[in-house]
TrEMBL record:
Residues 292-319 are annotated as: Disordered. GO terms for molecular function: L-ascorbic acid binding; metal ion binding; oxidoreductase activity. Belongs to the iron/ascorbate-dependent oxidoreductase family. This is Flavonol synthase/flavanone 3-hydroxylase-like. It comes from Tripterygium wilfordii.
Length: 319
């Protein structure tokens, strides 16, 4: 049992590396909120082949596939999306290198101020169950790269190049996907073009260390996200979605096939036709897990901030 104050100044990654064999009391969830460790069948997620988008006679096949996936699941995998595997793997690898930096170095980026373009968060002062995360906010992706490139952390040295390449490729794919999703609603493909070009890109990198008692806790609590679409890369399984029968279903991980996840703004825009699905992250007893969630909130609030279901905000006027 954790003593008062125990662990309160140490990251969960550090605790894990010190060989802790139990989950500190403050992370233990009430029994009804705990994951069921016997769940092992993955969701049969729809897979959308984007190569058909560029073939005039087959474009409607892709649009119909995406429309069906958005209505039924809110989550789908994409293949032939144009982002080389090497770019995705480099991003995951360099993110892992970042989290493996000495804690002292990462602490320099620690901030509870959501207006920081690059910040390293810990479960100590932010979302209770979210172990560590940091966010990049990029305003106006169409502006010259030099406007935001200095926002990357200086270490690891290849971070800027590798995560930057992934972020740029993700923007192109994001725009294509939003157009198709919008067309599926019977609107002009460029209906949201201005909002997308004015919006900010958020790249959230989540690190979930292996856990000695994964049946007692979660890496991330159940939530939906406030944006329009997220592109998600995962290093291994852990994500679960809540189906219409209120069962948690594990999401598969397929090499080279990122997950697309529909978010609250598109559920609202489609009058509920498309689903922003509640999801959560479970922990593994052996593997440290990494995910990169890249999204672009399409509509910002009047005060220039977008608020997520988890209470985080992103500035819309970051330069
Ligand atoms: O780690 C994951 O797979 C999911 C991350 C997520 O849900 C989020 O960042 O909002
Ligand atoms: Fe999420």
């Amino acid at each position: 049992m954790e003593k008062q104050g125990e662990c309160s100044s140490t990251s969960v990654k550090t605790l894990n590396e010190s060989g802790l064999s139990y989950v500190p009391q403050r992370f233990v969830l009430p029994s009804l909120q705990r994951p069921d460790p016997s769940l092992n069948h993955s969701a049969d997620l729809p897979t959308v082949d984007l190569s058909t988008l560029h073939q005039p006679f087959l474009r409607t096949v892709a649009i119909n596939g995406i429309q069906k996936a958005c209505k039924e699941f809110g989550f789908f995998q994409v293949i032939n999306h144009g982002i080389p595997n090497s770019v995705m793997n480099d991003a995951l690898e360099v993110a892992m290198d970042f989290f493996n930096l000495p804690i002292k170095e990462k602490m320099l980026l620690l901030s509870a101020n959501v207006h920081e373009p690059v910040r390293y968060g810990s479960s100590l002062n932010q979302v209770r169950d979210k172990v560590q995360f940091w966010r990049d906010f990029i305003k106006h992706y169409s502006q010259p790269i030099c406007k935001w490139i200095h926002l990357w952390p200086a270490n690891p040295p290849s971070y800027k190049e590798k995560m930057g390449n992934y972020a740029k490729a993700g923007q192109v794919l994001y725009k294509q996907l939003v157009e198709v999703v919008i067309e599926g609603l019977g609107l002009e493909a460029n209906y949201l073009q201005d909002e997308i070009e004015e919006g900010s890109q958020v790249v959230a990198t989540n690190y979930h260390p292996a856990c000695p008692q994964p049946e007692l806790t979660l890496g991330m609590p159940p939530h939906s996200d406030y944006g329009s679409l997220t592109i998600l890369l995962q290093s291994c399984q852990g994500l679960q979605i809540l189906d219409c029968n209120k069962n948690w279903i594990p999401v598969p991980v397929a090499e080279g096939a990122p997950i697309f996840q529909l978010q609250d703004q598109l559920e609202v825009m489609s009058n509920g036709l498309y689903k922003s699905v509640v999801h959560r992250v479970t922990l593994s007893p052996e593997k440290n897990r990494l995910s990169i969630a890249s999204s672009q909130p399409t509509f910002e609030q009047e005060n220039g901030a977008s608020t997520s279901a988890r209470g985080q905000t992103t500035p819309s006027d970051l330069q």
